[in-house]
Amino acid sequence: MVRSSDDNEKKSLVKKLKDVEISVPIVYGNVAFWLGKKASEYQSHKWTVYVRGATNEDLSVVVKRVVFQLHSSFNNPIRAVESPPFELSESGWGEFEIAITLHFHTDVSDKPLHLYHHLKLYPEDDSGSLSVKKPVVVESYDEVVFAEPSEGLFARVQNHPAVIVPRLPAGFSLPPVPAEDADKRKRVDPKDNPLTQWFTNFSEADELLKLAAARQQVTMNLCIFI
Predict the structure, then answer these.
(1) What are phi and psi of 152, to 5 degrees?
(2) Domain named YEATS: which ranges (predicted)?
(3) Residue 166 per-residue DSSP state
């Protein structure tokens, strides 16, 4: 039986890269603004919960959609965001836990990743005063690890700023990236997000030292979900 070139190309796209891992640093959290004189008993803050790249890169290269599950007191408490930025804005007065579910593209993973974030509206320090100009920002950093990616996936993400990929052996050739996937990288500029000025800089040396010590355990835990 003779295989066509199309069959061979499709086979190469799904072929797994053994002993290879790619990782995607992510940050999830919330920014909350006090409404000041406009605040009422049930509307004291305007807030945004989100999932973003560690330095605000576009995560849509691996993430298909993000589902946020709010408190049951909200209308339509389960909200799906189908395109970046993966964020949701609301207003209210109370703090509660938000379930965040990341759904990936089919060539990335068929298993969703479940995260949990406690919405914060007030400063951690009781003596901290509320300000309409400076929001409360609470964020967590993690790395999602995908083991044995397909050659097609590796080729698609190898030059994307949101994804950390290892260097392959010299002479190893990957399948070409479809034109439509290359075009998608240019559609979203994460720097256009007005919340960027409030995001935590997780590239600072002290943060990296803390994360490096915990990374091995975090990777083991996340691999359970992927």
Answers:
(1) -65, -45
(2) 16-160
(3) P
Q: What is the pLDDT of residue 197?
A: 84
Residue 82's contacts (CB-CB under 8 Å, 6 or more residues apart) are 64, 65
- DSSP 3-state assignment of 26? strand
Q: In this structure, are residues 139 and 115 in contact, taking their beta carbons and an 8 Å threshold?
A: no
Helix (H) or strand (E) holding 8: helix 5-14
Contact at 8 Å (CB) between 14 and 3?
A: no
End-to-end alpha-carbon separation of the chain, Å? 36
Q: Could you give all domains of the chain from N- to C-terminal order, each with its CATH number?
A: 22-223 (2.60.40.1970)
Chain-centroid distance of CA 63 in Å reads 7
The model's pLDDT over 121-167, given as tens digits with 9 standing for 90+, comes to 998 876 557 877 889 999 999 999 999 999 999 999 988 999 999 88
DSSP state of 24: E
Strand 45-53 to 21-34 pairing: antiparallel
Rounded-to-integer distance, Cα 72 and Cα 79, Å: 12
Residue 8 has pLDDT above 60, yes or no: no
- What pairing do the DSSP bridges indicate for beta strands 45-53 and 86-92? antiparallel
Beta bridge partners of 178: none
**Largest pairwise CA distance in the chain:** 76
